[in-house]
Amino acid sequence: MDYARSSWCMSNGDDDPADASEGADAADDAEDAGESTDAAAAPTLPDEATEESLNEYLDDIEALLDDAETEADLDDVDALLDDAEAGLDEADLPEPDEDDEDADDPRGDLEDRISDLREGVEDARGPYGEDVVDAIEAAAATLEDTEWTADGRDDAANAVDAFLETASDLIDVDAFPAHEDLDDLIDALGTVAEAVADADLDADADAETIAALLEATDALSAGLDDAEEWDDLETHEQLRAQGYYDVLGHYKDFPVEWSALKEHEARGNVDMILLALDSLTSDFMERHCLEALERMGKRGKTDASLEMLLGRAEKRDQFAISILGKMAAEEAVETLVEYVEEDSNPQLQKVTFKTLGEIGAADAVQPLANELHPDSDTDDLVRPHAARALGLIGDTRAIDPLADALAEDESDDVRAAAGWALRQIGTQEALEIVAEYGDERSFIVSTEAEKAERSLDADSATA
Q1: Which of 47, 178, 277, 321 ranks highest by number of CB atoms within 10 Å?
Q2: Judging by beta carbons within 10 Å of its beta carbon (0-12, 13-18, 19+), is residue 290 exposed, middle or buried?
Q3: C-alpha–C-alpha distance, residues 265 and 284, integer Å
Q4: Residue 232 has pLDDT above 60, yes or no
């Protein structure tokens, strides 16, 4: 339908017979040429549009939108809306009173009408072959991304089969895979999607085919929704299906999940511990799962457990950080070094220092030494932990900052921790530095000196 886009001429109240004759001749000429005369009935807009004329114009467009049957009809309506927007831009309309929230806003009201009509055009368009392709691809994604139960897999396969049968009747495609592998079903849906795209279906000429295909994809989607997923099962059913309880014979601890957890820990079944941690949402079981990994230490370190703990550590989970230390997880060093200067969170610092020490993180020596310095903002109760971490790491670069702390720090706890750390490093230089404090007034410091002296004597005896 080819709607006219010319503007109304402003009427002066006089009818010119010549003009009427001219119009009639033009219509006759158009008929003789086999052309449509629908354009004569199309709405037009005056050169100087008013609120009233614009609303009348939009009323006419709305009627044409209601009658539109093809994409071409909708294109014409869109073109008329373009004219309406242009006319609105040029129209001299009253502005609303800014001080009156209830004041009329003719321009805003007309803009809203045009916007609503635009949406009406879009809603009326299609459906298109692309919509079918999108629906098929969405179903394929659901099929691939969902964890199905055994029954659910069969139901999903049946839903795909029914769709494939319908699709083969509507377009030129042959895709009927066996049920043994979901990947085959996914590939089959991909084949149908490609066939639909290649068919280049026209929204008007192939409307019935597109509608039938969309009805089939709706049925496919409903079938997949009805098929049983793992998430539909109760947690204990999921665990049972995945063999979590298979380790149980006679058990005395309740809940039974805890009994199974203990057995999996004893057998080193890290994957089952992680399964329980992911499936069981109680704080009780979460704590016991994490404690199991903590006790297992390096035995509990797998790619999966490391990924889980690192994720928690990145959220400053102190228990997870502690477990990473027991695992000696070097992969955690980069994350943990960032927490060394967390002066506002002393508890996080303490667990981080210890974990870095247990890992033996050489990259943490300088950051830890910085926190050991009395001029740092680190709490006096935290700085001894920095010293002990340096001792656990055992890097000789820490000797000088530890010696300075032993000699100058005002806190006996820090000094004693520095002495302990130097003994852990254990070189003759480190031991001799500590041994010098045998007459120290502080008992805890002199105790470290006496132990260092004994170590030196033992070394001399074996030399």
Answers
A1: 321
A2: buried
A3: 16
A4: no
Of 71, 96, 124, the residue that ends a domain is 124
Q: Any bridge partners for residue 148, and if so which? A: 229
In which domain, by residue range, is 191 found? Answer: 129-232
What is the spatial distance between Cα 16 and Cα 12, in angstroms, rounded to a whole number?
A: 10
Q: Is residue 252 included in any domain, yes or no? A: no
Q: 456 and 361 in one domain?
A: yes
For 125-174, how does the pLDDT look when each residue is reduced to its tens digit (9 = 90+)?
A: 878 889 999 999 999 999 988 877 777 888 899 999 999 999 988 988 87
Q: Whole-model pTM?
A: 0.51
Same domain as 163, residue 87? no
- Asked whether 399 and 387 are in contact (CB, 8 A), the reply is no
Domains identified in the chain, total number: 3
One domain for residues 362 and 418: yes
Looking at residue 10, its pLDDT comes to 32
114 shares its domain with 212: no
Q: What is the pLDDT of residues 332-383, one digit of tens each?
A: 999 999 999 998 999 999 999 999 999 999 999 999 999 998 777 788 899 9
Same domain, 365 and 453: yes
Buried b (16+ CB within 10 A) or exposed e, 414-442: bbbbbbbbbbbbeeeebbebbbebeebeb
SS (H, E, C) 355-413: HHHHHCCHHHHHHHHHHHCCCCCCCCCCHHHHHHHHHHHCCHHHHHHHHHHHHHCCCHH
Residue type, position 8, single letter: W
Is residue 368 located within the same domain as residue 405?
yes
Quote the CA–CA distance of 306 and 219 in Å, as a whole number: 42
pLDDT band at 229 (very low <50, low <70, confident <90, very high): confident
Assess whether 36 and 133 both reside in one domain: no
Same domain assignment for residues 370 and 453? yes
The number of C-alpha atoms within 13 Å of 190 and in the hemisphere containing its C-beta is 9
- pLDDT per position as a tens digit, 239-285: 877 788 888 765 455 567 888 899 999 999 999 999 999 988 778 88
Residue range 111-120: mean pLDDT, rounded: 93
Establish if 326 belongs to a structural domain.
no
Give the Cα separation of 411 and 374 in Å (integer): 9
Residue 210 lies inside a defined structural domain of this protein: yes
Is there a domain that residue 219 lies in?
Answer: yes
Q: What CA–CA distance (Å, rounded) separates 66 from 74?
A: 10
Nearest to 350 by CA among 323, 376, 375, 379: 379
